[in-house]
Amino acid sequence: FKKNGLDKVTKVFDRRYQEIVEQAETLQKSFMITQEVYESKYKFEPLIGEIYHLYEDSDGGRTLSLIEPPQWKINPIEWNKKHIYSVVLNSDMTWTKID
Q1: Whole-model pTM above 0.90?
Q2: Taking 80 as the threshold, does the pLDDT of residue 73 lie above it?
Q3: What is the dihedral angle through the alpha carbons of 21, 24, 28, 34, rounded to the nearest 10 degrees?
């Protein structure tokens, strides 16, 4: 009885531990994306729920833009920017990466 009970409890704790590890990894990724966006250059106030695009500048810096990747290449002066990913601003002021 004790061994069976301990085996079942161990499985429950192991499963819960893995869930916590996965949640921590998700939280860390969310923090890194949010930090990267807030540290980027932009000259506008982002609106909650809107999609924005993060670009890498030729000097390695980051720029947040309203301009979508296909439209960005229209201006030859700005071709030196590489699209990193797109994000949306959440109501809690965190950023979520979107595909």
Answers
A1: no
A2: no
A3: 140
